[in-house]
Amino acid sequence: MAVDFEGRKLVVVGGASGMGFKTAEDVIAGGGSAVLVGRPGRKLDDAVAALSRSGSAWSIGADLSDGDQVVEAQKQLAEDHSDATLLVNAAGFYTPKPFLEHEAADYDAYHDINKASFFLTQTVVRGMVAGGDGGAIVNVGSMWAHQAIAATPSSAYSMAKAGLHALTHNLAIELAGEGIRVNAVAPAVTRTPLFEKVFPADQLDSAMDQLSGLHPLGRVGTPQDVAAAIVFLLSPASSWTTGAILNVDGGVMAGRN
Fold it and tell me: Is 94 a known active-site residue?
């Protein structure tokens, strides 16, 4: 059953694929609309075209590693979408790499996304405050921000995602008086395009099978698994929940097989 999002507008940073796209799809199915912020190109265009078959959807093209493009995206959000009351920060990538092999560019790539998300969130929140109707924000964090795994070294990624978890707690306190709730989800291995960049195409299926054993529930996640949790946190059903980091991880944080 679709959640009722009638008249609500969602901004998804990193919404052209994976859990961000699925969340936008679910919000539109519930009567809402969606704005996808992502790298300009066919992938973003195709995502908006697919969503537009069911409802209202728009795109804002921006490379989140380019500060000038982020500023332009902020301007577009402020001018055209200040009525948004829902926000999901889903942008990200993941490349397991040992700490001693990290270079400055590797580090910056992760933290540029956090910087962009920080200021895009600031712009959307200004609109929420001005509108006076409150709002809901969900950040996509990570199980790796909670726990290190030797097989997948990810120091810079984990550091960035832990920062996003900290931002979630801080904004939950700062914005509570405005009726704006701020939560996060922390997925474990989820089969999204993110992992298609980690493993060669001919090895992806076997890699996912191997990683399934990490999770007590015996499988990796899907975009729908995570989107369902995000939709719950965006919806009135979670109206007394803010500052939560919800583990959507097949049981990994409870313990491993």
Answer: no
